[in-house]
Amino acid sequence: MKAELQTFIDTIPAVADAAALKETFWLNDRKLPEAEQNITEVNPSQIKDASDRLIRFAPYLKKVFPELEETNGIIESELRGIPSMQKFLNTTYGADIEGTLMLKMDSDLPVSGSVKARGGIYEVLKHAEDLALESGMLKVTDDYSILAEPEFVGAPGGVTYGIKQIFGDNVHCFFTEPTHACCMMLGMATGLHDGISVKDFGIDGRTDADGLAVGRPSAFVGRVIQPMLSGIATIQDNKLYDLMRGLLNEEDIFIEPSSCAAFAALIRPEDMKKYIQEQGLESKMKQATHIAWATGGRMVPEETREIYIKTGL
Question: Considering the entire predicted model, what is its pTM?
């Protein structure tokens, strides 16, 4: 191992834990108040541009995907309270979660079935729109449902950035990763971002959380959200299955194992308590809303679900 990486292990406890494949919790010491953030790589106008594009495409999507009839062509998911899961986490893991726990069910997104797939759909729509506008086949004032006619043949960083634009310093965002694929934590804690991979620290990158099985962090995301992110928690694979079964038993909601990493920070009560105290939030926690962002599950075949449910028992 390079001497520089050994220095990180010797001086940053979370990196030492990660290299030893231990669960850990890293607090971002580079986080800045909203007024001091100077993010130039992206800007809020791009959020508005994307929103407008999805609205323009809504008539088309409603026409080609009947399951979007109810939402008028918008690919959106429910934000659901999960009080029984909150009690389960408090009882089983001593989570001591006050306020309200909710699940953003991007795991059940119509058409896409996951937050990443929705992003992919958006990219396809943007490219199709660009081509149609350039060719003169379409104007932005048109009813985009005409694209459904036969003659036309055709993750978290974004969530953090978007929600910070709305709530600013009143929202506290945490990433979560498997212990064997904790690339974002390593990249941000060391400040090297995409300059390192988990394998540089002797970590194999193997995890059942396939949606999070990434060995090298994004060259873009870490740097952009660095002043916004509160911290990163890691979790062992076996706990993902326990949390999956807990949610299914308590709320009758199925999400895939990798989605259950969303609860990782919440089941580290001592670390969360330290963060809450440092931020001066103790008096506000009874009114707090905690959102676990479920990223996938709808498209998991029934036979695979049964395997997941029995794993680790």
Answer: 0.87
Per residue, the 3-state secondary structure of 51-115, as one string, reads: HHHHHHHHHHHHHHCHHHCCCCCCCCCCEEECHHHHHHHHHHHCCCCCCEEEEEEHHHCCCCCEH
Burial class (CB in 10 A: 0-12, 13-18, 19+), 61: buried
The token pair that represents 65 in the structure block: 């995907």
Distance CA 302, CA 123 (A): 29
Alpha-carbon span 111 to 69, nearest angstrom: 12
Q: Looking at the predicted structure, is the pLDDT value of residue 124 above 90?
A: no
> For residues 147 and 140, is the Cβ–Cβ distance under 8 A?
no
Q: Please choose, from the candidates 104, 126, 84, 110, the residue with its C-alpha nearest in 3D space to the C-alpha of residue 251.
A: 84
Q: Residues 10-17: what's their mean pLDDT?
A: 96
Residue 304: phi and psi, rounded to 5, are -70, -35
